[in-house]
Amino acid sequence: xxxxxxxxxxxxxxxxxxxxxxxxxxxxxxxxxxxxxxxxxxxxxxxxxxxxxxxxxxxxxxxxxxxxxxxxxxxxxxxxxxxxxxxxxxxxxxxxxxxxxxxxxxxxxxxxxxxxxxxxxxxxxxxxxxxxxxxxxxxxxxxxxxxxxxxxxxxxxxxxxxxxxxxxxxxxxxxxxxxxxxxxxxxxxxxxxxxxxxxxxxxxxxxxxxxxxxxxxxxxxxxxxxxxxxxxxxxxxxxxxxxxxxxxxxxxxxxxxxxxxxxxxxxxxxxxxxxxxxxxxxxxxxxxxxxxxxxxxxxxxxxxxxxxxxxxxxxxxxxxxxxxxxxxxxxxxxxxxxxxxxxxxxxxxxxxxxxxxxxxxxxxxxxxxxxxxxxxxxxxxxxxxxxxxxxxxxxxxxxxxxxx
Length: 404
Fold this sequence. Notes:
Number of domains: 1
Low-confidence stretches: 1-54, 387-391, 395-404
Helix content: 25-40%
CATH class: Alpha Beta
Mean pLDDT: 84
Radius of gyration: 28 Å
C-alpha cells in the first residue's frame, strides 16, 4: 500500500469514528445519509423531513351560546312583515339547512345539534324531506318517520326551532304527493301538538318545472290548492304553529305570490324564497322588497353561498350584500347546507377528508374540517359580520377533493 492510499484510509476511518461519537447528541435530521448516493428507483419512497401537526390534534370548537331560544321566544307568530315571540319581541332566526333526509338522517346526533346550537349559534335547523314517488318518504314513510322524530327530539331538547321542509315535487298529478305530505304533518302534529319548536314548510318544489311546457299561474292552479289542504291538516292538531309557504318556480318567483289575486286564507303564514349568492342578486332583492312593502312576512329558508349549480366557489361580496339586506329588513334565514358527504361548494363540512377522525366529524368540528362555506356561515350566524374578502369567489372544490 503506498503512502497516499494509506493516508486516505486513515482519514476515512478517523472520520467514521468521529461521526459515530458525535451522532449520539444529534437529531436524526442532522445526520448524513449512510447509503450511497444513487438515482431513486420507481419504488423508492420519497423522504421528507417536514414536521407538521396531525389534524387529529387540532382543537375542536367550544360552546359560545347557552341560551335556549325557544324558552325565550315560545310560539312564533307573524304580524306584518315580522316574526314575533309569544312575549311581543321581534324575532329574526338564523340557522342552517340540511341536505335531503335521505343523505343525512344518520348525520344528526345530539352532539351535532348541540354543536350547531351552542358552538355555531343556530336558532333554527331546517330538515329537508325530499324524494319522489319512487324514493324517500313517499316510498318508505316508516323508514324516515322515526329518524325525523329523533331529530325533532334533539332540537326540542337543545331548545332551538326546527323547520320540517316538505321538498317533494311532482310532474303532473299532485294527489299522491299531497296525500304523503298530509300524512307526514298529521302524524307529526299529533305527537308535537304542544311544542313551540316546530315550524312547517310546505310547497318547496311542489311541482317539477318543465321548461318546455311551463305551468301558467302556478301559484293559483298548483300551489294554493296544494298548501290549503296541507295547512288544514297541520292546524287540526297544531292551530298555533307557524307555517312557511314557498314561492312557485322553485321558490324563486315571489312576485307571482304578491301580484296574484289569489290569497291564502290563513293567519300565521310566512312566505319563503330561496337564493344563491352567485346566481341571484338585485332583481331578487327587489322582489323581496316589493313583498315586504305589501306586508308579506318573508323567510329565506334556503340560502346558498355559491351559484345555484353549487359550483364556482363562495361568492363573498354578493353574500355580504345579501347579509346586509336581510339584516336591514329583519328577514330570517337558513344557510344551505349541512349533513351530507357530497363534494360541492355549498357543503359546510369536508366530511370526506381522511385527515380527521370519526370522533372529530361527530361534532364540535375543528376549523380545518369546516369548509369556506361553513366558516362563513358560522361567522354570520354568531356575529353577523360582513366578510372582509376582496375577491368575488374562492373555491373549495380543489381543496376538498385533495383531502378526500
